[in-house]
Design brief:
Length: 307
């Protein structure tokens, strides 16, 4: 696909947005998660350096159980990103037979470790472990995933707390194109605790009118066609097609699926939808890198708040 950085075209208002690129064959502009991440990570690096100079290098512990292939890749990327920006990382890998009691003891030790400011337990967990109990065992002050019930409550009430990284990354992408959510109709496809529900809360906080759709929603297309903004976060390839999108809508694709050739793709029929949307995020190179960037952001925040 041929894309060109904005700025090479005659100037329009959107040409001023540094993270959007235009594909010359379509009307939509790409919101580039890789480029936006680079900029945000540079800012984080300065904060990390200042903490390190005071002997308070931010530290992230990542716990992985079993050998789920996708989880292994996610965890590897998270640890590599920490290394790249100067965050101390600790990867704890266990067999999927680890008992819940042992896992809870490990979390307790990390809660008490002064070198660790953030704790992330990679999900999903094996069936014999109660994931919610594990999440609740993480100290809220180290809950950089934003999954603890107290973080969720803080988001719901608009008080201080960690925001889940994927929807937070989506909000940063909207900020990067100066998208004013006030009074806009946002449709979120998906109601997970990790993305859909917190995404809806964040959009609501910015005064959007929010509709949450899920597997029991009737007439999904009727709802998405009314939307100014659509966030697809349901893990179903091609859940959003061109005929379901109002011309000029903004589309954020949180999906991570594989096509029949094994190639990474999102929840959105990118080729079709990008013919009608005004902005769209690609997969790969869209929301994915932003999730990791916001994890780094939360870890730095956790270290700063402790000191
Ligand atoms: N599994 C899929 N996404 C995530 C995430 O953002 N955090 C954790 N801990 N597990 C995940």
């Amino acid at each position: 696909m041929k894309t060109q950085q904005l700025g090479a075209h005659p100037a329009t208002a959107s040409d001023l947005l540094p993270f959007a690129t235009r594909d010359l064959t379509m009307t939509s502009q790409l919101i580039n998660g890789v480029e936006l991440s680079k900029t945000l990570r540079q800012t984080l690096q300065a904060r990390i350096q200042s903490l390190t100079e005071r002997g308070q290098t931010p530290g992230l512990a990542v716990i992985l159980l079993g050998d789920h292939p996708a989880s292994q890749v996610y965890v590897r990327n998270k640890v590599a990103a920490c290394e790249q920006v100067g965050i101390h990382s600790l990867l704890e890998k266990y067999p999927d037979t680890l008992s819940e009691t042992e896992l809870l003891l490990n979390i307790k030790a990390l809660n008490e470790d002064p070198k660790i400011h953030g704790i992330l337990v990679q999900l999903p967990l094996p069936a014999h472990i109660d994931a919610q109990r594990v999440i609740e065992a993480i100290s809220p002050s180290k809950d950089v995933d934003g999954f603890h019930i107290s973080s969720a409550g803080a988001l719901m009430t608009g008080t201080k707390g960690f925001w889940p990284c994927t929807p937070y990354g989506c909000m940063k992408m909207l900020e990067s194109i100066h998208y004013d959510l006030k009074g806009k109709h946002a449709v979120v496809i998906g109601r997970s605790n990790i993305v859909g529900k917190p995404m809806a809360m964040m959009l609501l906080q910015k005064n959007a009118t929010v509709t949450i759709c899920h597997s029991h929603t009737k007439n999904l297309a009727d709802l998405t066609r009314q939307a100014d903004l659509i966030v697809a976060a349901v893990g179903i390839r091609n859940v959003l097609t061109k005929d379901m999108v109002k011309p000029g809508a903004v589309v954020l694709d949180v999906g991570m699926n594989r096509d029949e050739l094994g190639k990474l793709c999102g929840d959105v029929d990118f080729a079709g939808v990008s013919e009608v949307s005004s902005y769209i995020t690609p997969v790969p190179g869209g929301v994915g890198p932003m999730t990791i960037t916001m994890l780094l952001h939360n870890t730095v925040l956790a270290a700063e708040q402790l000191n």
